[in-house]
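Hey L., structure's done. Input below.
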Amino acid sequence: MTGTGILTERQLTAHLTELGVEPGGFLLVHASLRAVGPVAGGAEAVLRAVRGVLGPDGTVVVPAFTARNSDTSPAYRERVRGLGEAGRAAVRAAMPPYDADTMPCDEGLGVLAEAVRTSPGAMRSAHPQTSFAALGPHAEKVVSGHRTDCHLGEDSPLARLYDLRARILLLGAGFGSCTAFHLGEYRVARPPRRTYRCVVRDDGGLRRWWEYEDVALDDGDFAALGADLERYGGGAVRTGEVGSARCRLVGVAEAVDFARLWLARNR
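Output:
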């Protein structure tokens, strides 16, 4: 770091290279910049460093999830805790419909995700709850074809990233944030399913509620899953320091395949 304790873009680039991020390919990033520490230039500088290491042929991908337009999400349940029926109805009535061009990412995803989403040339997938944003020459290959009734399964960017041999960068984030594990949930035998509901716009631009069924997503044991992947994954996980944060680099395919077997044994 510099003498003021602020990480520079050049230092970030060196740390990412030492961790094993390489030019080209696809990189799915989950970031906690608070864990990394102060960076001169903030999230934009971090994004420039990541893209600089990936080079002109590399594509960076982030989750761009939105829970604010759903009344079946944990975020909604927390928001209406203690409210009566009238209060809950008022919250639902004020929920905005999903708009891929303008709706911000959930705050819990961190400022880097929003920096990617709002970057010139970024593309975003169509799912009204679990979209992904991608930036780079092959962004469209990642985000196209995201079926709106498939959160994180075979018709989502996660499956495309699996096929493309992408890698995951946990930049100060823990395995509890590793969305690729969700694809493993889809690939176990007979995964449990549930109903989801959110606000969208119909073809005429009118606001409406939409209900659909999909796999019941549960990240409650992902930290334990990731710890076992790191311990028993045969060296699949590379670790290193970026700024003040312990960071991890792992292939999407390795993470998903391990998760599928782990979940079948442990759930």
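Strands lie at 26-31, 59-63, 123-124, 132-135, 167-171, 193-201, 207-215, 238-242, 245-251. The chain has one domain: 9-266.

-- N.
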